[in-house]
Amino acid sequence: GFEKMCSLLPNVHLAKAKETLRSLFMDSDMMVQQRIAESLPSLCKSFLAYFGNDASRVAFLSNVLSFVSSYESKIRSNWRRVKSLIDCFPDLMAFLPASDIVMSLLPIVLTHITYGAQALKDECAELIIACLRKCVELKADKTILTTACNRTLKLTASASAPARVAFIQLSVKFAVELKEESFVACFEQALIS
Question: For the purposes of burial, counting CB atoms within 10 Å of the CB of 186, is it exposed (0-12), middle (13-18) or buried (19 or more)?
Fold first, then answer.
């Protein structure tokens, strides 16, 4: 596929491939979008090695996150495609700063743990924990951690029974798997406010 070709190209040709990828991000065919979604971690690895840490990297990641958001909104009712998309989130998180994880990926996962198909619930709970854990690993500032906790805690105040059930499911995984003091403090602060 395209991602394999990109990994073989010398850096000088990746600029042209970047323009091709930008076109593919905007392609209206669902099969093309599905293939791009499945290839996102490989594409990020190839392109981000080329960009380094400059403004081009930020712009590329912005395009990736815009694509993810747009694609997810089109496939929201097809749980198999959603599963395929969120399956790449752990690998995608390796390339993102904590703020992008909390502002772009976490809302998608929270939507699907609340309103998505039953087949997605356990994976979404695990992904929420993975998002929170990644924020800790990245030493995210307290504002980002608090935002992540507040977004998660909103499940408890929902009028939707599935949202409250999702929070219970998440709480069990949280208590068992994540013992980060910084998150315990953020959750305690969010509960008080």
Answer: buried
Which of the two residues, 133 and 4, has the higher pLDDT score?
Answer: 133
97 within 8 A of 138, measured Cβ to Cβ: yes
Helices (H), 52-97: 55-75, 79-87, 89-93
Output the pTM of the full model: 0.80
State how far the Cα of 154 lies from the Cα of 157, in Å rounded to an integer: 5
- Distance, CA of 189 to chain centre: 25
More confident residue, 172 or 163: 163
* Higher local confidence (pLDDT), 188 or 151: 151
Q: What is the mean pLDDT of the chain?
A: 80
Q: Is 9 left (phi over 0), alpha (psi -120 to 50) or beta?
A: beta
